[in-house]
Structure formats: C-alpha cells, structure tokens
Amino acid sequence: xxxxxxxxxxxxxxxxxxxxxxxxxxxxxxxxxTRAGLGAQLFTDWRYDAAGAxxxxxxxxxxxxxxxxxxxxxxNFGCGSSREHAPWALLDYGFRAVISTELADIxxxxxxxxxxxxxxxxxxTSAWLIAxxxxxxxxxxxxxxxxxxxxxxxxxxxxxxxxxxxxxxxxELGYLLERRAAIEAFEQRP
Amino acid sequence: xxxxxxxxxxxxWTAHEVSxxxxxxxxxxxxxxxxxxxxxxxxxxxxxxxxxxxxRRPERVLGTMDHSTPTKTAQVFGGAPIAVDSAxxxxxxxxxxxxxxxxxxxxxxxxxxxxxxxxxxxxxxxQPGKTIVCGDSHTSTHGALGALAFGIGTTEVGHVLATxxxxxxxxxxxxxxxxxxxxxxxxxxxxxxxxxxTIGVDGGTGHVIEYRxxxxxxxxxxxxxxxxxxxxxxxARAGMIAPDEVxxxxxxxxxxxxxxxxxxxxxxxxxxxxxxxxxxFDREVAIDASTIEPMITYGTNPGMxxxxxxxxxxxxxxxxxxxxxxxxxxxAGEPIKHQKVNVVFVGSCTNARLSDLRAAAAVLRGKRIxxxxxxxxxxxxxxxxxxxxxxxLDRVFLEAGAEWRESGCSMCLGMNGDLVGRGxxxxxxxxRNFEGRQGAGARTxxxxxxxxxxxxxTGRVTDPRELL
Lengths: 190, 468
Prior knowledge:
The structure holds two protein chains of two kinds. By secondary structure, chain A is of the alpha/beta class. Chain A contains eight helices and seven strands; from the N terminus they run βααβαβαβαβββααα. Chain A is globular. The model of chain A has no long low-confidence stretch (mean pLDDT 96). By secondary structure, chain B is an alpha/beta fold. In chain B, helix 2 links the parallel strand 3 and strand 4. In chain B, helix 7 (188-199) packs parallel to helix 9 (221-229) and helix 13 (354-364) packs across helix 15 (393-400). Chains A and B meet through helix 4, helix 6, helix 7 and helix 8 of A and helix 2, helix 4, helix 6 and helix 12 of B.
C-alpha cells in the first residue's frame, strides 16, 4: 500500500445518492482472479452504451474530468455488495479519495484497506463541493483536514489506527500477525 | 455497581474479543466460522502465497461455489463445459486454492453444495453465539440463528485465513420491534421490504440490527433467514434474532450441529444469549406487521418499494428519483399493478429455501405461466433441490412451464450467464434491484415467492391475494 499523507487534486462530482457497487463495477466483471486492471470497467454501464461506445454526457467521459483524483459522491455511496473490486476499480482508474456525507460500511472498510481515503463531510461542505465540480482541494491526512479553494479548512473524521495505516502505507495483516500470542491465548480459553 | 445489561449482540461480541477496542486501535475479534466462495477469495489466497502464510485454522473454514457456477444440469454434472470461460477458471482456482491450503470444499458436484448462506444454516454450521464471516454482504443471513454474521472484503478474507481474526470497530445497536400478525399472502419478504422502505437503504448504517417482538418470534427459521438476509439492504452491518425453541428445533440433528453431550452443553450456552429483558439499544423502531401488504419494488434500490395495491410515488424535482423511474420505464403516479413482466426468478439466498419453493409451487400447481414469460426456479442448495423433487415440486414447476435448475446464485446477479435481457422486466425473489444487477439494462422488481409466482401466471404485476 502506498503511504497517503496529502493530496492536492481536482474533484469529479457524481451527486446521486445511493450509488451502489453494482454501478461502480458490475458483477459480470467479478470472474477475475486478480485485482489489476479493473479501472477499465469502472462505472462501465454509465460510461459506455450497449454497443460499447462512450456516452459523451457521462461525467468521467468529459474532458474536464481527466486527471481528477477526488470523487465527490452523493449520500450512502458504495452501498450493496461487499466486493472489494469497487475500491480496486476506483484506485486503478486513478481516484485517491471519495468524499460524501455517508459511505456504506463495507465499502468504507474496503477502501481504507487499499489506501483509498473515505472522507466524510457535513451537508454544507458536501453541497458546496457538489455545486463546484472540478474544484481543487487539498487533503491533509495527518491533520484530518480538507481545504477548499477559498482556504476554508474542514475537519474530517478518521480513526487513529486508520490514519496511522494510511500515513505509513502499512496494512492491517502485519498488525494482526503480530497479535499471534494473544490469539493463541484466546484459543486456549475454556 | 450493578452489572450492565447486555444485548444479544453485546454478548456475542464480548465473548469474541481477543483484545477490546481502544482509542488507538480497533478490537481484535475472533471468527468462529469463515465461509468462502470462488468470487471473493482468489486474491486473498494470492496474498497468503506472496507472504508465505498458511491458513491458521482450516477446520474453521468451509468453501463452496455458488456465484458464478452454472445452473444447467449438463454443465454441472458433465456433458457440457461451463459456458462462461472466466467462471470456469474461477471455479478451478478455488479448487486449487482449497487443495493447496487444506480447506474443505463443497465442490461443484458435491451433494451438500449450495448458496453459501443457504448451506451454512442447512448443515447446522451456523449456530447461536458464533461469529461468522464471508466475503459476501448477505452473510447477515446467518444472524437469524443468533450468530453475529457479517460480510467482509477480500483483504479481510485474507486476514481471517491467516489469523482467524479481524480488526473491527464495535457497531451500534438497533432494535426493530415488530408486533402484529402478518396477513394472508404476506410473507417475511414483504416484512423486510416494508422495514427497508420505512428506515431507508442507509437506515442501518453503522449498526447491528436485532429483530424483536412477537411477529419475529412467530416466524419459522426459513422466514427469519429471509429477514436477516436483507439487513444489508438497509445498510446494517448485521441482523440478528435471539435464539429460541424455533432455533433449537431447526438445528437439532443437522449434520454439523453438535450432538449428544455437546448438544446439551451448547443448548445451555445458547439459552444465555438473548438480550437481557431491560437491555437498551442505541436506536429503536416499532413496526406494525398487521398493516403490511405484499410489497414490490418499483425503482433501482430496495428502499424504492410500495404495497402492491399502491401507485408509484411522485417526487417532483428529485432528479435521482426521475432517473430511476426513467431506467425502469415507469411513470410516477401510475399503479404498479398490471405492469408488464417478462421474466420471473425464484431463487437466491433470500428466497430459495424449501418453504419458498413450496409457496411458489402452491400458486402454480395445475396451472400454466403466461405465454412469453420465462420463469427460472433455482433451489438454494442441492439438498433443497433433492427434497423439492421428493415432494414433486419440480413437476409442478415444469408442468407450469418454468425451468428447474441446479442450485446457485444464478439470476440474482447473472455472473453465470443466467441473465435478464436489456429493457426486460423481471419479478425476482432476490435482494437487489440495482441498475443492471440481473444483466445490463435489466429492470428488476423485488417481491416474495408467492407474488413472483402470481406474476408468472398472469404476465403482469399481480397481487397474490387475488389468487388465494
């Protein structure tokens, strides 16, 4: 996992609430046995028509979206299935952070484990971001601060452990493996 | 100081804390049962390989194959290759992974194979007080037996394989109290769809739901499994129901349930699990079951649901709502009843147990489905398929003009090629009506098995109570 300390990038806005993981990556692409290359299928049924041609009106197909690394999404983004292919696809496409007023539990957990920052903001910050697509924002993981182009800084919640893992680029498996003695002791309990 | 009263969830959670949550670290939670399948496990086994790790407790892991497996008999039992190449490779990969790491696998032709959330309870592996995880969001199903069961991502599948543990933050608790008798033609599916319509598709986010009250206690185990199954459609981490005599009768004698002295010991423990009488929850909601009608969805998430006699709501100015209706080809304000249907699917971890098949067959017996309708009946497990055939349910479905298949997830998500066509309407007993869920451009209406069967007979959205 790459360390994530800070990011300055422009936003792409997808304002609909309840964007589910079947939209992020449809089930027909889950027969893969690797995690690479899923960005090509990100939002595929919204990006491409039935004949496979790009839909020019879809936000990710518009020229101004090129190079944007922050996805601003409506409430309850990532609901539905537990497929980790959803954050894999977002990361592979080039996103580093998803901003919303609420993210689905499993999506949020999966995102953190891959270094995709789930960033929860209040309604008014969300409304401003949705009204200003393409805004350049700055994210400081250590401080837990999102800075808007006006200079206004908004605090976002992030657990101490998750922050540590993001900043150091370490994964949880190493931490769990180090708990081996405690796990063995638990297994010996009557 | 008096001992704090505890909920069912609190009791199961605390008993599995290897170490509790602190300000700086999540809890380390021990996992009793880890179910794996072909779609969300390959990358996890790859991580074990790359890091030179083994499966810590292979006897606590059980593999099955369900998501991308064929349902046509010739593809399962020979004579024809698996039609989807990538699915065939995924199935072979799971076989290799389980063999290499010493994990038991119920392979494609195994008599005990089935949908992962159907076979756990059916084998008696899913038990009260256990922690159960699987790389699948509908793991919430197993909570019907009083287990703490939740879906995890593939990275976490790797964590459990390597350490039998997960790092978890303790969720909040949410009591859904259901009172009143369900009416004729109204099922557990209608109850949970109504609950989701009430609390919303994110109503349970961050919470573990405990379904409580006289209505829940009166439900049979199959019905409880249906209710807990769709907890995730309300955004909840898990759904639980306190174990009781229904639970114990269900488990007694199942192949992998405890027996003899072990059964008596287990029973004594299980009886301590229900929430204390004065336990408090972070949130509570009351539901009156007596007013619930057969429910059906009209939109593109499970919260977009109405009683079958109602009209599609009107929400002027709501762009997302308009987009959903446009996708579905519906007009706000028109009745949902009598809308055209092309496909009927009876199956999935929500509604493919024996009682679901019986309920659908009772509607179809001696009748023919409408001309032009495709109806797929896919049992939840090979064992259910055999039992249904012993009762002659397969004949009822076949004589009605439906297809009778081998078990699997099938048309719930269409990974195996069982697909609904672009623009077609499917009345489905599954759990998700998201855009494209049953195939690109497919339009899904979620309903109960009796409603689905009624729709198959008429070729239109039909209130099953009119056929009772």
